[in-house]
Every structure is written in C-alpha cells, then in structure tokens.
C-alpha cells in the first residue's frame, strides 16, 4: 500500500486528500477530494498514464471541505463510473458500508468504522495490507486533538476516540483530514506537561506537515482527548468522569 498525501486549501483550511494505491494491481481510491484544483494536477497524470486504476471516491463525512469535490471528480472520470463510498449524507454517495464491514481493492482490506459526533455520518476508514495498517480519520481524530462536536456529544466522541479507534492495533498509522497539529499541541501543553505532549509540541513545531507521523499508540500518549483518566488533565478540567472530562476539554479547546 502506497499513500500519496495531497494538501488542499493550504493556508486556509489546511485540508488533506489521500490517494491510496495498491502497488500490486494499481487499483486506487481517492479519499476526501474536496478541492479539485488541488487534486486533479496530482490525480490526472497518474490516471491518464495508467500508473493507477482509480476505482472509488471515499468520504469521511459530508462537509463540503471533504465531500464537496465528489461530483467534479465523477465528471472528470465519467467513463469509470466511480462509486462514492461514505456516510449517508455525503454528496452523490452510492454506498454506505455498515459499521465494521467493508470491501477490498487489490490486496488492501478496508473496514468502515462509524464514529458519529463531528457529524452523524462520520466514518473512519481502517485499511490493512499485510502488516501495514492505517486509518483515515477525517475530522474525528486529529494528531493531538479531535473534531468539534457539531452534530454529537462528548459521550459520542469518547466512544469514537477511546473505544472505536482506541481498540485498533497500536501500530496503526493515523491520517487525519486537516493539519491542525501545531494548534492542538499548544492546547495539549496547556493542560498536560507529560513527555508525550512535550514531544508532540517539538515535532509539530519542526514540521509543516505531520500527517501519518504517529500511530494510535502515540495518540494515546500525546492526545489529551485520549488521556481522560490522566490525573493532571482531570485537575485542569475540574472533572474526573471520562465523558465530563471530554466535554470540558472540548469547551476549553473551543475557547483556547
């Protein structure tokens, strides 16, 4: 499995689209290709040269900065009759796999992990190719942070991060929907002086793009939204019950 990161709307939304390629068959999927002006220059030469066989559009959720380019991609490659695989509210969606079900392309096995909160149709996509394991988390899990609870609750985000994603293999690499690591690290530092958070601050400060640098195991050490039982974080929030800690952390981050 080869992952090609495509930065989009850089300096504004700092979004990521991802092209995931099965190196054996050339079968590929494009994840969250919202801004066609940023995606097509990377995608089209590979499609036209036959270096990849584009098989699907995948969305992590319905917001325009993730699913807003679906119809333009469909029109650009109309001959391929691409399916749009994502949550029920994504534009032009044709397939919504149930939780813990999925599909394959080439030798890559894909599993849909429903993580409602940021939006109720949020899906994280776990992919495995042999020993290589990755998860595309959209606006649910960021490096060192999480998405706003636009359509959900602290209880839902706790379940999404600390149960659904937290139960993935520790060596699963994380690919979020935005580059928010610097801001997340600064907030984390305000509520935790742990070694994990300090290292996150250091790496974030030295890199413009950090997607894929960390694993689920790393997030459990430096992402304060996945450290709800930590005494220092509980003290900072004034709460001890996990959902209440999550709720207060999000309130604090919103106003940070």
TrEMBL record:
<comment type="pathway">
    <text>Secondary metabolite metabolism; methylglyoxal degradation; (R)-lactate from methylglyoxal: step 2/2.</text>
</comment>
<dbReference type="Pfam" id="PF16123">
    <property type="entry name" value="HAGH_C"/>
</dbReference>
<comment type="similarity">
    <text>Belongs to the metallo-beta-lactamase superfamily. Glyoxalase II family.</text>
</comment>
<protein>
    <recommendedName>
        <fullName>hydroxyacylglutathione hydrolase</fullName>
        <ecNumber>3.1.2.6</ecNumber>
    </recommendedName>
</protein>
<feature type="domain" description="Metallo-beta-lactamase">
    <location>
        <begin position="14"/>
        <end position="178"/>
    </location>
</feature>
<keyword id="KW-0378">Hydrolase</keyword>
<dbReference type="InterPro" id="IPR001279">
    <property type="entry name" value="Metallo-B-lactamas"/>
</dbReference>
<dbReference type="InterPro" id="IPR032282">
    <property type="entry name" value="HAGH_C"/>
</dbReference>
<dbReference type="InterPro" id="IPR036866">
    <property type="entry name" value="RibonucZ/Hydroxyglut_hydro"/>
</dbReference>
<dbReference type="InterPro" id="IPR035680">
    <property type="entry name" value="Clx_II_MBL"/>
</dbReference>
<keyword id="KW-0479">Metal-binding</keyword>
<dbReference type="GO" id="GO:0004416">
    <property type="term" value="F:hydroxyacylglutathione hydrolase activity"/>
</dbReference>
<dbReference type="Pfam" id="PF00753">
    <property type="entry name" value="Lactamase_B"/>
</dbReference>
<dbReference type="GO" id="GO:0046872">
    <property type="term" value="F:metal ion binding"/>
</dbReference>
<keyword id="KW-0862">Zinc</keyword>
């Amino acid at each position: 499995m080869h992952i090609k990161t495509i930065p989009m709307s850089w300096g504004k939304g700092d979004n990521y689209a991802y092209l995931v390629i099965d190196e054996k068959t050339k079968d590929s999927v494009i994840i969250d290709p919202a801004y066609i002006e940023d995606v097509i220059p990377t995608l089209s030469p590979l499609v036209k040269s036959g270096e990849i066989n584009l098989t699907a559009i995948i969305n992590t959720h319905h917001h325009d900065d993730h699913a807003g380019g679906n119809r333009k991609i469909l029109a650009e490659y109309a001959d391929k009759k691409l399916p749009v695989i994502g949550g029920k509210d994504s534009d032009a969606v044709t397939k919504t796999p149930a939780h813990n079900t999925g599909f394959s392309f080439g030798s890559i096995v894909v599993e849909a992990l429903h993580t409602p909160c940021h939006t109720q149709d949020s899906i994280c996509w776990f992919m495995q190719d042999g020993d290589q394991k990755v998860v595309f988390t959209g606006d649910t899990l960021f490096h060192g942070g999480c998405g706003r609870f636009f359509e959900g609750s602290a209880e839902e985000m706790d379940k999404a991060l600390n149960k659904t994603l937290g139960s993935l293999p520790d060596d699963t690499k994380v690919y979020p929907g935005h580059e928010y690591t610097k801001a997340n690290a600064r907030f984390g530092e305000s509520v935790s002086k742990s070694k994990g958070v300090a290292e996150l601050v250091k790496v974030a400060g030295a890199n413009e793009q950090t997607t894929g640098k960390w694993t689920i195991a790393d997030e459990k050490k430096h992402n304060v939204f996945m450290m709800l039982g930590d005494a220092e974080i509980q003290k900072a929030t004034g709460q001890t019950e996990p959902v209440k800690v999550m709720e207060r952390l999000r309130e604090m981050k919103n106003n940070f």
